[in-house]
From TrEMBL:
It comes from the Bacteria. The lineage of its organism: Bacteria, Pseudomonadati, Pseudomonadota, Alphaproteobacteria, Sphingomonadales. This is Cation transporter. It is a multi-pass membrane protein. It comes from Sphingomonas taxi. The keyword Transport applies. Belongs to the cation diffusion facilitator (CDF) transporter (TC 2.A.4) family. One of its GO terms (molecular function) is monoatomic cation transmembrane transporter activity. Residues 230-304 form the Cation efflux protein cytoplasmic domain.
Length: 324
């Protein structure tokens, strides 16, 4: 029991680290906002609460995604995580960005009297240290997963939203803390509390940009994205290498979960292969494919004449063109 709990915590160290940091920081920011009347600090408090809720939703999504396949969902529930990732993006936009911009607008219209900013500076420094630690954990774990792939390309190709969502959130949080600090300082330096409201709006705009980027990535995963091109080529190479296969017509893949891939292969078998031989050959291919790519959860290999597959592809292409 203890080992299982430890394994889950280690598996989700990015989410647990971000959740712990945001809970503590959020309380401190609200206290500081209440003492000093800072709009940007209140905005940052809301930001931390939204981030905490997001981590809880992602943990919930991971738990739900691990349910076993059943009659209604024969390929499992893995893509439920992608749904909750999309919900997280909507929350960042609607709550985080919306409240930040609205609060900043109100503070510009009705600026509060300036108070001693020392509490704000202390809380911002502590928050920056904690958010920085969470960001470092997220960056380290994502760097391990991406390997030699470039950062932006790795984010676009990633099929696990938990890692890059926390990375985006923490990056936005650090930028927000810097803007909040500048806003508090400038408000006192120039004796104009409206600057603090402008800082709050800028934080909201950053959150809105992050939310749109996350929503785009989550939408692609929710609709269904193919596997990594290397996986596709590995599958194609293994099937094509079999002496009973004269040609591979196509390899189509889709992620049903971050670590589960559905693959459908159309292959032209040599004419001398009988139905019984074909069944044995397909079973052998499936074993080789699972050994080479353990994340292949469902494998379908369909014997199909090359000319028939080409005709079907042409018909599908013409149908798509006519529809558009």
């Amino acid at each position: 029991m203890t080992q299982g709990l430890t394994a889950r915590i280690r598996e989700n160290i990015v989410l647990y680290g971000a959740l712990a940091a945001n809970l503590g920081i959020g309380v401190a920011k609200f206290v500081a906002a209440g003492i000093t009347g800072s709009s940007s600090m209140l905005t940052e408090g809301v930001h931390s609460c939204v981030d905490s809720g997001n981590q809880i939703l992602l943990l919930y999504g991971q738990h739900r995604a691990k349910r076993q396949p059943d009659a209604i969902h024969p390929f499992g529930y893995g893509r439920e995580l992608y749904f909750w990732a999309f919900v997280v993006a909507i929350l960042i936009f609607a709550v985080g960005a919306g409240v930040s911009v609205y609060e900043g607008y109100l503070h510009i219209l009705e600026p509060e009297p300036l108070r001693d900013p020392l509490v704000n500076y202390i809380v911002l420094a502590i928050a920056f240290a904690m958010e920085g630690a969470s960001w470092f954990i997220a960056m380290r774990e994502f760097a391990k997963a991406k390997g030699d792939t470039g950062w932006w390309r790795a984010i676009r190709q990633s099929k696990d939203p938990a890692g890059f969502i926390v990375l985006f959130e923490d990056s936005a949080a650090l930028a927000g803390l810097v803007i909040a600090g500048i806003g508090v300082w400038a408000s006192h330096a120039f004796a104009d509390p409206r600057i603090d409201g402008v800082a709050s709006i800028l934080i909201g705009l950053i959150l809105g940009l992050v939310a749109m980027l996350l929503a785009r990535e989550a939408k692609g995963l929710l609709i269904g994205e193919r596997a990594n091109p290397q996986v596709v080529e590995t599958v194609r190479g293994i099937v094509a290498a079999h002496p009973a296969v004269s040609a591979v017509n196509h390899v189509r893949t889709i992620h049903t979960a971050p670590d589960a891939i559905f693959v459908a292969v159309s292959a032209d078998f040599v004419d001398t292969v009988t139905m019984g031989d074909g069944e044995t050959i397909i079973e052998e291919m499936e074993d080789r494919l699972r050994e080479a790519v353990p994340t292949l959860s469902s494998i379908y290999i369909r014997p199909e004449k090359r000319e028939n597959a080409a005709t079907l592809t042409t018909i599908q292409a013409n149908t798509t063109t006519a529809a558009t």
